[in-house]
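tool_call predict_complex ligand=cytidine-5'-monophosphate
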Amino acid sequence: MKLCVALDLPDEKDNISLAKSLKGCDVWLKVGLRSFIRDGKNIVSELKNINENFKIFLDLKLYDIPNTMADAAESIASLNVEMFNVHASSGKIAMKAVTDRLSGIKNPPIVLSVTALTSFDNDEFKTVYNENIEKKALQFAKDSFESGVEGVVCSVYESLMIKNHTSDSFITLTPGIRPFGDEQKDDQKRVADIDTAYENKCDFIVVGRPIYQAKNPLDAVQRILAKKLF
Ligand code: C5P
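tool_result ok
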């Protein structure tokens, strides 16, 4: 399992200070929409300048027509990030367009797809997708697998089921982690602690607020890594 720290702070300098404080840690960093829109693509090189071994997950959740998604994926591949994501609900043709386009590129980033946002509970999910959340998340995962996508963003509680229906090596990256089980859920509905994520074979856990809102973010990261599940 790997730890991915969400850089969701309100301004660039705070994200950079957080990354600097984690300089010696074996973590991935997640650059999300706010940071990328505000700080631009240079944020990637700034983070790599802090520690060239930091791996970057660009969490932009692409959703558009197939050709536009493939074009965007090709641009992302030139940014020196190790992983990015698309929405599985963009459909198999769009996901295939992305993976086909990347297959012509040397060392392309890993592509994941988002199944169901962890902020959805079943009722809200149904109003959008007209389907039970677990059933649809599994269908999205199968579609992604068949489209050449290398893994999914999903809830901890779907990780095992998705691997069982695709492959053990199909990556699961799970947000909604409250590492020690005693933190606030915030807007996340289906939260889990680290042990539960490990038991469910999650390959990556994404942790945001429990780290960057902690009095000492480095200490929070070290406490997570000390669980030796990484
Ligand atoms: O602060 P917290 O740990 O809840 O942050 C979770 C991070 O994971 C946020 O950056 C959020 O955008 C992201 N995310 C999520 N659910 C998804 C995909 C991404 O919470 N399905």
